[in-house]
């Protein structure tokens, strides 16, 4: 069965995701689009991507697309799909709607029209209608309304893929696991001595970055601990596919190996350290990753072999003085999961305000002191350390008085950020200057 697949991802991550999908499915013709990647796939490839992709937010199957002007066109789009190929009336369903410059007044009503169409198709085919379950649907459907075109997807993932199935404790501002993976991929950190070396996050919160890193270092597939919507859908139900799915998981299990590099995290809050340790246990990496309490401005660098390179990866606390470009700038159409445009400015402001409130006690010279500490504690290491910092502060290099070697756009939910790279070697300091927001 041919399944046109679309994998949405965070804005700025498309190229990394395309690279990941090419590595997982070398034969697949992968195309990169705004907000995700597309490929002509099949059930086996959909299962593989759900299990193995660290960067995709979901694995969607496109089941219909049409130009539209009214809700009747949307109903027709839903009615053209052979839903009896996907589910029986005993299955439950939910329709989510995302929009990008849609002319329709009520996206929710458009979603209801899709629900009606699915129920009508199944009633005509079987004499019975399925019911809706907004919490745990068997058939999650996504309707994307563009300016003039609507696309209908079946979501084979169910819960978004950043939910790896290990998080019990969140902390206040956790990164999504998919974004932590994207930062590591952008940093070229592959969990080996040759590619990335040791990993440390000095402000690790609930441990997302070190836990994701530890799983990479051990070859643990991100989806091994969870279930997926496709497991209950008819195109995946035949015996051969079920046995392929069991084999995919068994192969992934067999690939797990001891880590070859040390991975660690620290946080000034002991509550966070406790969360991180419990999360690491559930993620199966408690034996690989070390979490300690401590102030990032004072804690010595982790002790590592002299010939091993070190990588610092951190999304530090944001202080009140920061005025994130995405939060206070002009309202912009910001793509997320499947290119949806939401009331971004409001959400971005709320997210920034929450971060600011959480970190009110942050000293105003926190970043300058952090960089000074890095120069003292990390730069002398013979094999060097590289720091990757995700921040919405476009002037971070000035605040840190460090020259950035790279800056890459990345979105942390609604917050426009940059991922900065700093090479911690002697001479990386510089006099402060005004960075143009880029
Ligand atoms: C934005 S959160 C990091 C979230 C984390 N990446 C996660 O996924 O849970 C920033 C963290 O920095 C910690 N923090 C604040 N000041 C610190 C300091 N001086 N030293 C170490 N950690 C600090 C906070 O406790 C908070 O957990």
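^ structure tokens above, recovered residues below v
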């Amino acid at each position: 069965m041919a399944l046109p697949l679309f994998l949405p991802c965070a804005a700025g991550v498309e190229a990394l995701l395309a690279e990941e999908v090419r590595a997982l499915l070398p034969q697949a013709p992968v195309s990169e689009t705004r907000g995700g990647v597309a490929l002509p796939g099949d059930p086996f490839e959909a299962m593989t991507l759900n299990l193995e992709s660290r960067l995709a937010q979901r694995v969607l199957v496109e089941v219909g697309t049409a130009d539209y002007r009214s809700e009747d066109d949307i109903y027709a789009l839903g009615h053209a799909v052979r839903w009896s190929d996907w589910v029986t009336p005993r299955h439950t369903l939910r329709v989510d709607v995302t929009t990008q410059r849609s002319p329709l007044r009520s996206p929710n009503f458009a979603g209801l029209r899709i629900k009606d169409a699915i129920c009508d198709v199944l009633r005509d085919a079987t004499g019975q209608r399925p019911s809706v379950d907004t919490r745990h649907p068997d058939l999650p459907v996504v309707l994307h309304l563009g300016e003039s075109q609507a696309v209908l997807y079946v979501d084979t993932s169910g819960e978004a893929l950043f939910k790896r199935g290990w998080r019990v404790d969140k902390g206040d501002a956790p990164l999504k696991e998919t974004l932590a993976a994207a930062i590591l991929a952008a940093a070229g950190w592959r969990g080996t001595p040759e590619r990335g070396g040791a990993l440390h996050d000095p402000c690790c919160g609930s441990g997302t970055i070190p836990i994701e890193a530890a799983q990479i270092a051990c070859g643990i597939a991100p989806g091994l601990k969870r279930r997926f919507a496709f497991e209950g859908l008819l195109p995946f139900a035949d015996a051969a596919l079920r046995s392929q799915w069991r084999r995919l998981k068994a192969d992934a299990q067999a690939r797990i190996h001891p880590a070859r590099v040390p991975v660690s995290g620290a946080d000034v809050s002991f509550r966070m350290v406790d969360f991180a340790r419990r999360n690491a246990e559930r993620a199966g990496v408690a034996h690989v990753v070390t979490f300690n309490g401590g102030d990032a401005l004072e804690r010595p660098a982790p002790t590592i072999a002299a010939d091993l390179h070190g990588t610092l990866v951190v999304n530090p606390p944001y202080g009140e003085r920061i005025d994130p470009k995405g939060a206070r700038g002009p309202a912009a159409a910001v793509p997320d999961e499947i290119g949806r445009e939401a009331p971004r400015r409001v959400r971005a402001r709320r997210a920034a305000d929450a971060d600011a409130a959480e970190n009110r006690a942050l000293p105003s010279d926190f970043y300058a002191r952090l960089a000074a500490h890095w120069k003292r504690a990390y730069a002398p290491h013979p094999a060097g350390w590289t720091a990757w910092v995700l921040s919405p502060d476009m002037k971070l290099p000035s605040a840190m008085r460090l020259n950035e070697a790279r800056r890459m756009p990345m979105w942390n939910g609604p917050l426009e950020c940059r991922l900065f790279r700093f090479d911690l070697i002697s001479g990386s300091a510089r006099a402060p200057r005004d960075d143009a927001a880029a």
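Residues 324 and 393 are 6 Å apart (CA to CA).
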